[in-house]
Amino acid sequence: MTQDLLQGKTAIVTGAGSGMGKAIAQLFTQQGANVVFADLNLAAAQAAVDSYQPEQANAVQVNVSIDSQVETLIQDTLKTFDQLDIVVNCAGVPQVFTPIEELSLEQWNQIMDVNLKSIFLTSKYAVPVMKKQQRGAIVNIASIAGVRARPGLNAYCASKGAAIMLTKALALELAPYKIRVNAINPGPAETPMLGQFLKGDGAQKEDDKKKIFLDSVPLGSLIQPDDIAQAALYLASDLAKIVTGEILNVDGGRGI
Ligand SMILES: NC(=O)c1ccc[n+]([C@@H]2O[C@H](COP(=O)([O-])OP(=O)(O)OC[C@H]3O[C@@H](n4cnc5c(N)ncnc54)[C@H](O)[C@@H]3O)[C@@H](O)[C@H]2O)c1
C-alpha cells in the first residue's frame, strides 16, 4: 500500500488512547498526516504516540463532551499545525446491558454526551476552519448497533442511530463547501470496550462475549481495530473524494 495517502494533511482523532482510535491515529501518522491523538486519558494517548514514535504527532487531553475543551482542542491544533483537514470522532462509551426502567438519567446523559454531543461540538468548531479552506473530511465512528438493535443497549443504540443521521445531515449541509462527512459502523470489535457491554466477569463474561457477540458475526470473527483504521483511512483520504453521507458497515456481515 502507498505510504503517503495523507501527506500534507492534519488530523484530529478522538479516543486515540485505545482500541480503534489508537489504530486510526497511528495509521494516519504512518500515511504522512500530522495527527493530534486526543483522549480523556492523557497517559494512554501519550503512550500511543510514544509506542509509535512518530515525529508529527501530539498527545492532547480532552473531554469531548465539554464545549470549552473541544474549542481549545481545535484552536491548539491550528496553532501547532496551521490547518485542519480531518476529524475522526472515535471517542465513545459503552452501555452495560440495562433494562430501560433501570437506566438512570445520568447514565443516559453520559452516553449521549460522549457518543453524540461530541460530534456536534467538534463539528461546531472544526467546520468554520474547513469552510475557509474549502476542504475537509469528517469521519464518525458510529456502530452497527445504530441500525441493528440489541436488547438492553437502549441508550447506546439511540446515540449511535443519531450519530448516523447527524452524519447524513451534515454531509448535505457541508457538501457546497467540499467538506465530506461519512461514518463507519463497526461490528463487535476486539477492543477493551467489548467486555464492558456485559454484566459479570471472568469466565462467564468470556463465554457471553462469544455467545452474544462473536456468534452474531456471519464472517465468524470479531472486528479488529486495524479493520476500522483501514476504512477510516479510505474515507478520510482523497481516495474517497466523491464519497459523502456514506455509512460504511465494517462488521463481518452483522448488519445484514
Ligand atoms: N468495541 C466495539 O465492539 C464497538 C463496536 C461498534 C462501535 N464501537 C465504537 O467505536 C469507538 C471506539 O471504541 P473502542 O472499542 O475502540 O473503545 P475503547 O474503550 O478501546 O476506546 C475508547 C476511547 O475513548 C476515550 N474516551 C471515552 N470518553 C471520552 C471523553 N469523554 N473524551 C475523550 N475521550 C474519551 C477512552 O479514554 C478510550 O481511550 C466508540 O465510539 C465505540 O462506541 C465500538
Description of the structure:
- This protein is an alpha/beta fold and 256 residues long.
- The chain contains 7 helices and 7 strands; from the N terminus they run E-H-E-H-E-H-E-H-E-H-E-H-H-E.
- A 7-stranded parallel beta sheet has the order 3-2-1-4-5-6-7, with helices on both faces.
- Helix 2 (42-52) links the parallel strand 2 (34-39) and strand 3.
- The longest helix has 29 residues, at 105-133.
- The mean pLDDT is 96.
- Nicotinamide-adenine-dinucleotide binds next to helix 1.
- Sum up the overall morphology in one term: globular
**Which class best fits the helix and strand makeup?**
alpha/beta
Q: How many beta-strand runs?
A: 7
Ligand inventory reads: nicotinamide-adenine-dinucleotide
The third-level CATH topology is Rossmann fold
Please mark out the parts with pLDDT under 50 across 5 or more consecutive residues, or reply none: none
C-alpha end-to-end distance = 29 Å
Strand order of the largest sheet: 3-2-1-4-5-6-7
Our count of helices gives 7
Helix content: 40-55%
Radius of gyration: 17 Å
* Average pLDDT taken over every residue: 96
